[in-house]
Design brief:
The chain has a domain at 31-44 and 85-231: 3-Layer(aba) Sandwich (Rossmann fold). The chain is built from 8 helices and 10 strands. It has helices at residues 44-51, 74-84, 100-110, 115-128, 145-157, 175-190, 202-205, 228-231, and strands at residues 2-13, 16-28, 33-37, 59-64, 67-68, 85-89, 163-167, 194-199, 210-215, 218-224. The longest helix has 16 residues, at 175-190. The two termini are 30 Å apart.
Length: 234
Amino acid sequence: MIKLEDIIKSYPSGSGEVLVLKGVSFEINDGEYVAIMGPSGSGKSTLMNILGALDKPTSGRYFLDKHDVSSYTEVELARVRKEKIGFVFQSFNLLKRSTVLRNVMLPLVYANVPRHEREIKAKEALLKAGLEEEYHVHLSNQLSGGQMQRVAIARALVSNPSIVLADEPTGNLDTKTGEIVLETFRKLNEAGHTVLLITHEHDVAEHANRIIFIKDGLVVKDEKIKHQAAKKHD
């Protein structure tokens, strides 16, 4: 599904170019649950932007479903984001005075999906994300942090993307609530979704089946998490 070949990313600065990614290469297959982990300044956020088709590499190639996304125009990148990637952010990014259902329906409004179909898909996504139907008519600012993150997950799922890309999704949550949200990602992965989790916390990354470690703009380690199978029976 995903293949990165020698991805380099630099940004202009007053003293010249700042090199953030220095030749990143790896592959991620359909149905994997992968954490991309690194400290602040490691380049993981820049890498996330490239994986999410929010930015393009300076050089190197990014293949998504065998298509070279690194050569796409801004319009083509926008289509990739709309059709293939569901984003979950640390800050939830919900409309506070809109109902849960309307928040989840919003991507389908932009996609010109008929209203009746939007509502059906939104309810299905919310239930899949683990939010009970009684909360669907609540305003998003009436929910707990964990519930808001589940709404954000449902919004990411509603367009049936190939990839769920989560950027520090437990960063604004307490430990117990964070564990519940991470359990939701595990269940989504078991249901067949490809999940990419961006984090700087090792205990969060260990919920994935594989961790790609980024440091100083390079992949320094890529390892499988062997104890994950045992976790599934907890």
